[in-house]
Amino acid sequence: MITHPRTEELAESVRLWIDEIRPTLDPRNAFLARVAANAMATIYRELTQGPAAEAAAVDGMSSVLGHEGAFAELNTEFCARIRSGALTVETPGVLAALQVMARNQIAIDQPSYRPEGTPPPAG
Q1: pTM beyond 0.70
Q2: What distance in Å separates the CA atoms of residue 87 and residue 64, rounded to the nearest whole number?
């Protein structure tokens, strides 16, 4: 059976290739290659960590809102209720849900960022 590379494998392969050729480039193109490699790394993390992050967000928002739904619908309602003042940090579960969503998004977008008091990843 023929199997094709998964999307995350393709993204990682392109990132590695860019990093391999970057030292041979002139400064401007080396910088642009670094930007491209960083973008590919973010795509990789979104593909590999995004589904779990979205599932955690759905769990947190569902718990606070009191009903289940798709991420986009829950997120729209959750944000609207925060904007209107119907949900605040005093509302049970809101702060915990926001913290989980923020940490998961930071892990995807800026994995080297470590909030104060956060231990470095194992390994």
Answers
A1: yes
A2: 9
